[in-house]
Amino acid sequence: MSSPGTDHRLDDIAVRDTRISDAIDEPMRAMILDILSEKALTAAEVHERLADRGIDRTENTVRHHINELRDAGLVDVVRFEEGRGGTTKYYHANTIVLSYSLPDSADAAVEGMIEAIQPQITDALATLTDEHDDVLEEIVADMQPCEHCRTQKYETYVLLTVLRRAFVRAHRDS
Protein backbone atom coordinates (compact mmCIF):
# COMPACT_ATOMS: atom_id res chain seq x y z
CA MET A 1 0.00 0.00 0.00
CA SER A 2 1.31 3.41 -0.83
CA SER A 3 0.10 6.71 0.44
CA PRO A 4 -0.79 9.12 -2.35
CA GLY A 5 1.65 11.98 -2.81
CA THR A 6 4.44 10.45 -0.75
CA ASP A 7 7.39 8.23 -1.39
CA HIS A 8 6.80 6.33 1.83
CA ARG A 9 4.92 3.00 1.86
CA LEU A 10 2.24 2.01 4.31
CA ASP A 11 3.31 -1.43 5.57
CA ASP A 12 0.90 -2.23 8.39
CA ILE A 13 -2.34 -1.27 10.09
CA ALA A 14 -2.59 -1.08 13.87
CA VAL A 15 -6.16 -1.62 15.01
CA ARG A 16 -7.41 0.19 18.06
CA ASP A 17 -10.99 -0.73 18.75
CA THR A 18 -11.99 1.77 21.43
CA ARG A 19 -14.53 -0.63 22.93
CA ILE A 20 -11.79 -3.18 23.46
CA SER A 21 -8.97 -0.84 24.39
CA ASP A 22 -11.13 0.94 26.99
CA ALA A 23 -12.11 -2.41 28.52
CA ILE A 24 -8.53 -3.68 28.75
CA ASP A 25 -6.98 -0.39 29.79
CA GLU A 26 -6.60 -2.04 33.18
CA PRO A 27 -3.73 -4.58 32.76
CA MET A 28 -5.41 -7.15 35.00
CA ARG A 29 -8.31 -7.37 32.53
CA ALA A 30 -5.95 -8.48 29.77
CA MET A 31 -4.72 -11.22 32.12
CA ILE A 32 -8.31 -12.23 32.85
CA LEU A 33 -9.02 -12.47 29.12
CA ASP A 34 -5.95 -14.63 28.73
CA ILE A 35 -7.09 -16.91 31.57
CA LEU A 36 -10.64 -17.13 30.23
CA SER A 37 -9.47 -17.92 26.69
CA GLU A 38 -8.34 -21.35 27.89
CA LYS A 39 -11.61 -22.58 29.39
CA ALA A 40 -14.80 -21.48 31.11
CA LEU A 41 -14.22 -20.57 34.75
CA THR A 42 -16.07 -19.03 37.66
CA ALA A 43 -14.99 -15.71 39.14
CA ALA A 44 -13.55 -17.62 42.10
CA GLU A 45 -11.48 -19.79 39.77
CA VAL A 46 -10.25 -16.71 37.88
CA HIS A 47 -9.32 -15.21 41.26
CA GLU A 48 -7.27 -18.33 42.05
CA ARG A 49 -5.51 -18.26 38.66
CA LEU A 50 -4.63 -14.59 39.15
CA ALA A 51 -3.24 -15.41 42.61
CA ASP A 52 -1.09 -18.10 40.96
CA ARG A 53 0.30 -15.34 38.74
CA GLY A 54 1.08 -13.17 41.76
CA ILE A 55 -1.91 -10.84 41.45
CA ASP A 56 -3.37 -10.11 44.88
CA ARG A 57 -6.88 -8.69 44.53
CA THR A 58 -10.13 -9.46 46.27
CA GLU A 59 -12.58 -11.78 44.59
CA ASN A 60 -15.06 -8.89 44.36
CA THR A 61 -12.48 -6.83 42.43
CA VAL A 62 -11.93 -9.75 40.06
CA ARG A 63 -15.69 -10.12 39.64
CA HIS A 64 -15.94 -6.38 38.84
CA HIS A 65 -13.27 -6.69 36.13
CA ILE A 66 -14.97 -9.76 34.64
CA ASN A 67 -18.24 -7.80 34.51
CA GLU A 68 -16.49 -4.90 32.76
CA LEU A 69 -15.14 -7.33 30.16
CA ARG A 70 -18.60 -8.89 29.80
CA ASP A 71 -20.20 -5.46 29.38
CA ALA A 72 -17.67 -4.67 26.64
CA GLY A 73 -18.67 -7.87 24.84
CA LEU A 74 -15.31 -9.61 25.34
CA VAL A 75 -16.48 -12.27 27.80
CA ASP A 76 -19.65 -14.37 27.73
CA VAL A 77 -21.50 -16.16 30.48
CA VAL A 78 -21.49 -19.65 29.02
CA ARG A 79 -23.12 -21.66 31.76
CA PHE A 80 -25.05 -21.37 35.02
CA GLU A 81 -24.94 -23.93 37.82
CA GLU A 82 -27.46 -23.94 40.65
CA GLY A 83 -26.27 -25.03 44.05
CA ARG A 84 -25.82 -24.11 47.70
CA GLY A 85 -28.53 -21.49 47.60
CA GLY A 86 -27.14 -19.58 44.63
CA THR A 87 -26.24 -19.56 40.99
CA THR A 88 -22.65 -19.89 39.83
CA LYS A 89 -21.74 -18.28 36.51
CA TYR A 90 -19.05 -19.63 34.23
CA TYR A 91 -17.31 -17.13 31.98
CA HIS A 92 -15.36 -17.66 28.78
CA ALA A 93 -13.50 -15.12 26.64
CA ASN A 94 -14.74 -14.66 23.09
CA THR A 95 -11.81 -12.38 22.22
CA ILE A 96 -8.10 -12.63 22.84
CA VAL A 97 -5.72 -9.73 23.03
CA LEU A 98 -2.28 -10.17 21.52
CA SER A 99 0.33 -7.76 22.83
CA TYR A 100 3.47 -8.88 21.07
CA SER A 101 6.12 -7.48 18.79
CA LEU A 102 7.84 -9.51 16.12
CA PRO A 103 11.63 -9.65 16.40
CA ASP A 104 13.52 -7.83 13.64
CA SER A 105 15.03 -11.18 12.68
CA ALA A 106 11.57 -12.32 11.52
CA ASP A 107 11.24 -9.65 8.81
CA ALA A 108 12.51 -11.79 5.91
CA ALA A 109 10.40 -14.81 6.86
CA VAL A 110 7.30 -12.67 7.35
CA GLU A 111 7.87 -10.98 3.99
CA GLY A 112 8.07 -14.41 2.33
CA MET A 113 4.78 -15.46 3.91
CA ILE A 114 3.16 -12.19 2.85
CA GLU A 115 4.22 -12.76 -0.74
CA ALA A 116 2.86 -16.32 -0.60
CA ILE A 117 -0.59 -15.33 0.69
CA GLN A 118 -1.06 -11.89 -0.89
CA PRO A 119 -2.75 -13.18 -4.09
CA GLN A 120 -5.42 -14.96 -2.02
CA ILE A 121 -5.91 -11.89 0.16
CA THR A 122 -6.22 -9.73 -2.95
CA ASP A 123 -8.89 -12.13 -4.25
CA ALA A 124 -10.70 -12.13 -0.90
CA LEU A 125 -10.75 -8.32 -0.78
CA ALA A 126 -12.04 -8.19 -4.36
CA THR A 127 -14.80 -10.65 -3.45
CA LEU A 128 -15.78 -8.63 -0.41
CA THR A 129 -15.84 -5.30 -2.22
CA ASP A 130 -17.52 -6.66 -5.38
CA GLU A 131 -20.13 -8.92 -3.81
CA HIS A 132 -20.80 -7.06 -0.56
CA ASP A 133 -20.31 -3.43 -1.55
CA ASP A 134 -23.82 -2.38 -0.49
CA VAL A 135 -23.43 -3.94 2.94
CA LEU A 136 -19.98 -2.36 3.36
CA GLU A 137 -21.41 1.04 2.45
CA GLU A 138 -24.23 0.63 5.00
CA ILE A 139 -21.83 -0.32 7.78
CA VAL A 140 -19.48 2.55 6.93
CA ALA A 141 -22.39 5.01 6.83
CA ASP A 142 -23.44 3.84 10.32
CA MET A 143 -19.88 4.36 11.57
CA GLN A 144 -19.55 7.93 10.29
CA PRO A 145 -20.84 10.29 12.97
CA CYS A 146 -20.70 13.31 10.66
CA GLU A 147 -19.85 14.37 7.11
CA HIS A 148 -16.47 15.73 8.28
CA CYS A 149 -15.34 12.18 9.11
CA ARG A 150 -15.31 11.00 5.50
CA THR A 151 -11.53 10.93 5.47
CA GLN A 152 -11.45 8.20 8.10
CA LYS A 153 -10.54 4.70 7.01
CA TYR A 154 -13.86 3.10 7.99
CA GLU A 155 -14.00 0.73 5.02
CA THR A 156 -10.47 -0.46 5.73
CA TYR A 157 -11.47 -1.10 9.34
CA VAL A 158 -14.57 -3.07 8.32
CA LEU A 159 -12.64 -5.17 5.80
CA LEU A 160 -9.87 -5.86 8.30
CA THR A 161 -12.46 -6.86 10.91
CA VAL A 162 -14.02 -9.32 8.46
CA LEU A 163 -10.64 -10.80 7.56
CA ARG A 164 -9.52 -10.94 11.20
CA ARG A 165 -12.71 -12.71 12.33
CA ALA A 166 -12.56 -15.10 9.37
CA PHE A 167 -8.98 -15.89 10.37
CA VAL A 168 -10.08 -16.63 13.94
CA ARG A 169 -12.81 -19.00 12.73
CA ALA A 170 -10.48 -20.75 10.30
CA HIS A 171 -7.79 -21.09 12.98
CA ARG A 172 -10.29 -22.35 15.55
CA ASP A 173 -11.79 -24.90 13.14
CA SER A 174 -8.46 -26.24 11.86
- The number of distinct helices, counting runs of at least 4 residues, comes to 7
> For the report, how would you describe the main beta sheet?
2 strands, antiparallel
Low-confidence stretches: none
Q: Which CATH C-level class of the largest domain is it?
A: Mainly Alpha
Strand content: 5-15%
What is the annotated CATH architecture of the largest domain?
Orthogonal Bundle
The rounded Rg comes to 20 Å
How much is the average pLDDT? 88
Q: What is the H/E string?
A: HHHHEEHHH
Cα shape: globular
- The CATH superfamily label of the largest domain reads Winged helix-like DNA-binding domain superfamily/Winged helix DNA-binding domain
Total beta strand runs = 2
Structural class, please? mainly alpha
Question: How far apart, in Å, are the first and last alpha carbons?
Answer: 30 Å
Give me the CATH fold name of the largest domain.
Arc Repressor Mutant, subunit A
Number of domains: 2
Q: Please give the share of residues in helix.
A: 55-70%
Question: Gist?
Answer:
The protein is mainly alpha-helical and 174 residues long.
Question: Can you offer a commentary on this structure?
Answer:
- The chain has seven helices and two strands; from the N terminus they run H-H-H-H-E-E-H-H-H.
- With 174 residues, it is mainly alpha-helical.
- The chain folds into two domains: 76 residues, Orthogonal Bundle (Arc Repressor Mutant, subunit A); 68 residues, no CATH class.
- A two-stranded antiparallel ribbon has the order 1-2.
- A hairpin with a 2-residue loop joins strand 1 and strand 2.
- Helix 2 crosses helix 4, helix 3 packs across helix 4 and helix 6 crosses helix 7.
- The model has no long low-confidence stretch (mean pLDDT 88).
